[in-house]
Amino acid sequence: MTWAVRFEEVSKRYRGGGPRHASLREDLTQLGARAVALLRRRETVDQGRIALDKVSFEVEAGESFALIGPNGAGKTTALKLLARISYPTRGSVRFRGRVGALIEVSTGIHPELSGRENIWMYGRIMGMSGREIKRRFFNIVDFAELGSVLDMPTKMYSSGMQLRLGFAIASHIDPDIFVVDEALAVGDAGFQAKCVERMTALVNEGRTLLFVSHNLSAVETICRRGMFLLDGRVEVIGKSDEVLRRYLDWVDTRQLERIGREVQFRPSGLLRIDHVSFHDGTGIEKGVFRTGDDVEIRLAVTAEARIARPFFSIGITDGRPGSLILCSMLVDGKVPDEIEGMSTLACRIRRIPLLPRVYQVWCSVRSNHGYGEIFDGQIVGAFRVAETSLKFNGPGAIAHTTADAPIFTEYEWLW
Amino acid sequence: MNELVIKGNRPPGVLDGLREVWFFREVVWAFAERNVRLKYKQATLGVAWAIIQPLAFLGIFTVIFGRFAELSKGNHSYAAYALSVLVPWIFLQTAVSIGAQMLVLDGTLVKKVYFAREAPILGAVLATGLDFIIGLALVLIMNRYLGGRLAWTVLLAAPLWLLMAILAAGLAMTFGALTVYYRDFRYALPILLQLWMFASPVAYPLTAVPAKWRALYVLANPAAGILDAFRRILVEGVAPDGGLLFTSTIITLITAWVGYLIFKRMEPGFADAI
Q: A365: domain CATH number?
């Protein structure tokens, strides 16, 4: 296969910490400083923040390629280079074919001009020829749902109408290489669906698609390959499911670390929790599990005085309000007669039915008969389910198992 | 399929740039059309301004300079001379000042959509051309009353305008690029243009410049020979001074080329700096 887009060791540096206005005075002083450095044969240091650092990748013609990564990783910078808006500082960007970007251009819509005039003006500025606009004019009008107000100045339009008009124009361009930033293709849900529909149609037609998104489900269903950018560097390039896994792995690892740091064992009256650890079925301490693994949660506690019948409860949540799983002595009735001093309790959960993500564990202890709180429900630890031993083959399997409902249950569709 | 390469640390070439402008000619035209439409939508008097502006200047010039100009006066009235040069001068001045602002005014588009970055500037120069045509009609009508001589030489206004447009485009590009990086030029440019007017044979004829300075004057000011040519073809009805026009053409082309070179050099940072 031949490539359609190629990045060769592309670096991008923004002067003065980011894109901004320059000031003549500052630049002149800098120029002076550089001249002095040059005269004294000193090295001059490149100034500014590096947004992309020697990024190389190749996108084949007809392929759909995703760029994912956290905010500030360089996705938008890469996208601007792809859309030819911005230039690389080093390296080269190569294209084979006409590039077009699907972006929100309602800011470009001119308020004094009518909807019709705007379609003619901005259609051409976006890269459509006069002939193409003529052919698609009514499609654009239909898409924007603006038939009745076409000849009114767009300043009379509602902001939603302006947005639809801008988007309708942008989405009717017809390039070989299509660049889409989900963050820019804003609008109501119906419009976003239209956007995804249009993208899918283009991919099916065999156009090359470059897609930047935080919507992992869309990335997984639309894109065949992708790239995970982190701090301006390529973390991994490959098939989109692999890339997504690595990205989610990174997200969850960081989240687990953060929660681990934030956990504080606040003493609560008589009882203190000293340590919480997670173990697998054989007793080995771990932080990361797989769906269906046995998980043992161990609590090391210290009771300042003798506590009779302390009802321990452990709850597991994925961060949303409420618990997904509750393991409570108040429910199953098994409770130690008394604790005093240091002791360790363990709660063993068999075949944990949780899908990949980070889970938090809270603990509470109630006194004899369940009345009166000895230890209030605090987050005491976190563990991670990283992958599942089960095989899912659906087109949105990774995104949905990691971001949608967390409980795994066996099911089967019949027809 | 032909390949497009964008290399870092290497500004786009001038020839590639011209090719790109040709590829984006419809976009140039779209910008021109938009500017014209906006102008006549936003201003109540619309077309009339293309007439009012030169007439107002003519009034001022006649009152202030009319008397001094007596000395170097030819066979035609000062008013006829002044108007015939004011119209092309106003075109040059307006095209440069509006063209230089276009990248910033259309900043949202520049930051979001790719098109040849020359397009908004060239569009503005073309749009100003409409005012020139209206102004030219005014000159031809007024000539009768101001005592000019109408001849076939009027037709030379078209190639002369083209030369003027090339000069305007080159300067608008340089100042447009500078304005993107340093907004100071927004305030400096009107002053520079005003100074340029007094350094050009607009209020006075070229013959008013002392003979020993004239060669330097024409070499330093690409507009001088062109404005003088306008005066000759519109008022006196004679062909332009060949040598003078040739010199000015060369200087104009060099100025425009250098202006475009500066633009191309600064172009890679536009989207980041706006």
A: 2.70.50.60
Residue that terminates a domain, selected from A215, A236, A254: A254
Q: Do A121 and B33 touch (CB under 8 A)?
A: yes
**What would the two tokens of residue B221 be?**
């000011």
Whether residue B33 and residue A24 make contact (CB cut-off 8 A), yes or no, is no
Cβ-Cβ contacts under 8 Å between A and B: the total is 119
Q: pLDDT tens across A268-301, in order?
A: 778 888 889 999 989 899 989 999 899 999 999 9
**Hey, where are the domains in chain B?**
14-38+45-273
User: What are the tens digits of pLDDT across the range A305-344?
Assistant: 888 889 999 999 988 888 999 999 999 889 999 888 899 9
Q: Which amino acid type is present at position A293?
A: D
Q: d(Cα A66, Cα A20) in Å, to the nearest integer?
A: 28
A18 assigned to some structural domain: yes
Of A220, A227, A255, A256, nearest to A241 by C-alpha is A220
End-to-end CA distance of chain B: 33
Supply the CATH number for residue A61's domain.
Answer: 3.40.50.300
Total domain count, chain A: 2
The predicted complex's ipTM stands at 0.78
Give alpha helix (H) positions in A40-97. 75-82
Shortest distance between the Cα of B155 and any Cα of chain A, in A, equals: 32
Question: Does the model's pTM come out above 0.80?
Answer: yes
In a domain, A392, yes or no: yes
**In chain A, which residues have their Cβ closer than 8 Å to the Cβ of B177?**
none
Q: Kindly give, in sequence order, each residue whose CB lies less than 8 Å from that of residue B202, ignoring residues fewer than 6 positions away.
A: B82, B85, B86, B89, B227
From A254, A284, A302, give the residue that closes a domain: A254
A241 and A290 together in one domain: no
Contact B26 A130 (CB under 8 A): yes
> Which residues of B lie closer than 8 Å to A, measured between beta carbons?
1-9, 26-27, 29-31, 33-34, 37-38, 41-42, 106, 108-115, 119, 181-184, 267-269, 271-273
Each residue of A79-91: pLDDT tens digit? 888 888 888 988 9
Q: Which residues of A touch B187 (CB under 8 A)?
A: none
Length of chain B equals: 274
A396 and A320 in a single domain? The answer is yes
- Considering only CB atoms, B113 lies closest to which of A14, A120, A126, namely A126
- Return the structure tokens found at B102: 């276009």
In chain A, what residues touch B108 (CB-CB under 8 Å)?
A: 107-108
Same domain, A159 and A192: yes
